[in-house]
């Protein structure tokens, strides 16, 4: 079992084709990631056996995160939000994304999709389900928690003459014990466009993990089946200058003091000049989704006081160690490409459709979708993480640190981040905290 | 006491200056609005005496709505959302809105603001508090539930040298028993830019009502002190055609069947051609905010099955009467200006700063802000309510019906609407339901 692939080890299925992006895999041991286990239960996780995972303990396997999502008024409001087709529109009008899905479905190895059963997790208006049905799937079950989306999906699927192949189910997947005509561990394929802002925003990785564990047959395929999170050093002078000027002239008042709060909410924006990339990109974390299980979505991490924002009040002793559940804790080490000021990091991600490694077996490349700043632009754009102060770096200088990503403390579908950046032995490290709202995509 | 001014009666302080908009005041008796009372308690409301209202029953006065807002994870997420200064930016960059506020503060009658105490309800980044302080207020207490907004407001106010006049308080106003240096019923002025999408979106009218009841001194001034909701008949051909074309070409599939779901979520957009206004505007409801009390924010309304969307399943007997708490239940009667298809209604609103009627007393006009389609455009834009089918109308034809506005069933900060439109005796009335998300502004 590949386990908790948060930048700590190589994956069980290495993609052998040359990637679009450099693959600085982060292999370094990382003591703060104590071990991969259920967030609210000790003694499980890495040591858990495969058989136990695939067994009948479905009812308690996702207590850690999915239940936090479900046991909340927020969850009802989250699904309500998707009632409005306009909210789906930016995704469906993202031609880079839909082209990747169409290419991925068309690239299915013989027998992998033709005549197979497919579960579409968070189907929205049913676009992916229809693409899968048209690409040869025998039967698609499409599930979504939004009543309005499901209502629209049924009309759309009927209008496209695909009602005989696609069954749309309204419900929160974690709460569904039965799906029409299907048994647990019965689907050949689980597919989902679950990826959100900063990849993890929206919290749907937990739902995908549940779907895989409960509904995918042994040896089944997850689409996409590999995602990775990337960062590069960022020069962000123009945008910050523009923000400062904009905030300095509001109804005759200078409100530029808002900037310290502005940067705590990373901007979703696009890199406009290649020179804004101050370093080569580095992969922060990779997830082999075929092996993803609910107990791997969050990992326990020891944290001291040093990752807190310097300006925040310390409510507990600074050196006291605490444990917290995080998505990933990612050490990084960048080398500056030139003399410049480092403003922070630009965050992006990549998804691969390898069909369980079968494409490489045929000598083909996996289908790839990336939000890389220099690739075709997508509706996800990039996430700009600006530090509270800039750092002057010379060419070939090393900048190291850590980025921790975790569910939002108020709304677990948000992503909160803690950044620590070190440069030069004498200086104090820069630390800051951030929140990416899940509403952004 | 002016009571529940939801289109049922004239107001206690009529504005005598010529309004920008026609003032078709809706005086008709409206049997479905049974009476104005607390939403969850019988026997109060219209018959309640002034003394009782201003008395010491603060703790239970807003049980109906404010407590529904507060007793929810949604509330924490709502305030979290305002941590991000970017969310405030569209409001602060709305020059029509900020100009109205500056003009309103500058227009204060002698002694009404100079040297006075002001409570800013939902202060955000403190813009209005600073404008009030610069306009002469002796002391401003600015309250907001967003920790991030309050943090930024304090920095901004300090940078502008106004910390001696403005005190920023972090908290949910309904939960605050004390404000620094102030006593209940002690403020000379309560001001708030509480207005949201479709006026009522965001649910802040309930918070304003609480603030007025608990903190405003007898005879104090509310800014703005009069708001009204307006509608006109809408020709919306181009936008619907554009939506249909856009949805008919998604990744090679025709998804235009989504349109029936699309129109349930009224578009925030601008009227681009005057001819889209198919009728003169009509005022649907007016609120005299000086008289607003928590028990008036929602009123009980008898509803039968006929206001439900025709396509929705009837879970209860169609003729069974139910009671529901609504913001306003607004009968309307429009006269078509020409031969055309009626697509629905365009909704907009107006706010007046009358300084408690003092401006008229001085022979001056109240300061006015409007989202009227033919006035200067604002970040609120207009709300387009499209019907499930269009109606052909001839010039001078009458179209009548009712628009009911109420808090969202999932998130009470949303606004849900029920529309009934009648035209011609023989035809079935058109009924439809809508939801405006509070996230829109």
UniProtKB/TrEMBL annotation, chains A, B:
<dbReference type="InterPro" id="IPR055135">
    <property type="entry name" value="PRMT_dom"/>
</dbReference>
<feature type="compositionally biased region" description="Polar residues">
    <location>
        <begin position="8"/>
        <end position="17"/>
    </location>
</feature>
<dbReference type="Pfam" id="PF13649">
    <property type="entry name" value="Methyltransf_25"/>
</dbReference>
<feature type="domain" description="Protein arginine N-methyltransferase">
    <location>
        <begin position="226"/>
        <end position="421"/>
    </location>
</feature>
<dbReference type="InterPro" id="IPR025799">
    <property type="entry name" value="Arg_MeTrfase"/>
</dbReference>
<dbReference type="GO" id="GO:0042054">
    <property type="term" value="F:histone methyltransferase activity"/>
</dbReference>
<dbReference type="GO" id="GO:0005634">
    <property type="term" value="C:nucleus"/>
</dbReference>
<protein>
    <recommendedName>
        <fullName>Methyltransferase domain-containing protein</fullName>
    </recommendedName>
</protein>
<dbReference type="Pfam" id="PF22528">
    <property type="entry name" value="PRMT_C"/>
</dbReference>
<keyword id="KW-0489">Methyltransferase</keyword>
<keyword id="KW-0949">S-adenosyl-L-methionine</keyword>
<feature type="region of interest" description="Disordered">
    <location>
        <begin position="1"/>
        <end position="62"/>
    </location>
</feature>
<dbReference type="InterPro" id="IPR029063">
    <property type="entry name" value="SAM-dependent_MTases_sf"/>
</dbReference>
<keyword id="KW-0808">Transferase</keyword>
<feature type="region of interest" description="Disordered">
    <location>
        <begin position="303"/>
        <end position="323"/>
    </location>
</feature>
<dbReference type="InterPro" id="IPR041698">
    <property type="entry name" value="Methyltransf_25"/>
</dbReference>
<dbReference type="GO" id="GO:0032259">
    <property type="term" value="P:methylation"/>
</dbReference>
<feature type="compositionally biased region" description="Acidic residues">
    <location>
        <begin position="310"/>
        <end position="323"/>
    </location>
</feature>
<dbReference type="GO" id="GO:0016274">
    <property type="term" value="F:protein-arginine N-methyltransferase activity"/>
</dbReference>
<feature type="compositionally biased region" description="Acidic residues">
    <location>
        <begin position="44"/>
        <end position="62"/>
    </location>
</feature>
<feature type="domain" description="Methyltransferase">
    <location>
        <begin position="118"/>
        <end position="220"/>
    </location>
</feature>
């Amino acid at each position: 079992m590949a386990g908790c692939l948060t930048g700590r080890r190589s994956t069980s299925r290495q993609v052998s084709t040359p990637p679009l992006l450099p693959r600085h895999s982060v292999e370094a041991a990382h003591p703060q990631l104590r071990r991969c286990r259920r967030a609210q239960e000790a003694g499980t996780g890495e040591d858990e056996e495969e058989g136990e995972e695939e067994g009948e303990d479905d009812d308690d396997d996702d207590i850690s995160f999915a239940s936090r999502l479900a046991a909340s008024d927020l969850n009802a409001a989250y699904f309500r939000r998707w009632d409005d087709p306009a909210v789906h529109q930016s995704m469906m009008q993202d031609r880079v994304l839909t082209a990747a899905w169409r290419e991925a479905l068309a690239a299915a190895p013989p027998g992998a999709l033709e005549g197979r059963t497919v579960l579409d997790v968070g189907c929205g208006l049913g676009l992916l389900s229809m693409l899968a049905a048209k690409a040869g799937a025998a039967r698609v079950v499409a599930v979504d928690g939004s009543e309005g989306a499901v209502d629209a999906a049924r009309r759309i699927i009927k209008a496209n003459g695909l009602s005989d192949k696609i069954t749309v189910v309204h419900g929160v997947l974690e709460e569904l014990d039965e799906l029409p005509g299907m048994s647990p561990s019965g689907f050949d394929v689980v597919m989902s466009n679950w990826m959100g802002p900063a990849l993890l925003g929206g919290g749907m990785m937990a739902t995908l993990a549940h779907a895989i564990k409960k509904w995918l047959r042994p040896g089944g395929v997850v689409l996409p089946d590999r995602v990775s999170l990337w960062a590069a050093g960022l020069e962000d002078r123009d945008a910050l200058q523009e923000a400062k000027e904009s905030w300095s002239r509001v109804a005759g008042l200078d409100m530029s003091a808002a900037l310290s709060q502005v940067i705590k909410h990373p901007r979703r924006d696009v890199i406009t000049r290649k020179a804004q990339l101050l370093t080569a990109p580095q992969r922060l974390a990779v997830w082999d989704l075929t092996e993803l299980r609910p107990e791997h979505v969050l990992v326990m991490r020891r944290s001291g006081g040093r990752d807190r924002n310097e300006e925040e009040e310390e409510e507990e002793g600074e050196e006291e160690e605490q444990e917290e559940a995080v998505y990933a804790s990612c050490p990084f080490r960048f080398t500056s490409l030139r003399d410049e000021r480092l403003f922070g990091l630009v965050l992006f991600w990549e998804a691969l459709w390898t069909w369980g490694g079968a494409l490489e077996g045929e000598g083909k490349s996996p289908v790839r979708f990336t939000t890389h700043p220099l690739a075709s632009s997508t509706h996800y754009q990039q996430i700009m993480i600006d530090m509270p102060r800039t750092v002057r770096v010379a060419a070939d200088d090393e900048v190291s640190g850590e980025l921790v990503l975790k569910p939002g403390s108020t709304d677990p579908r948000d992503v909160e981040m803690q950044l620590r950046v070190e440069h030069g032995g004498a200086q104090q490290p820069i630390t800051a905290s951030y929140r990416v709202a899940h509403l952004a995509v």
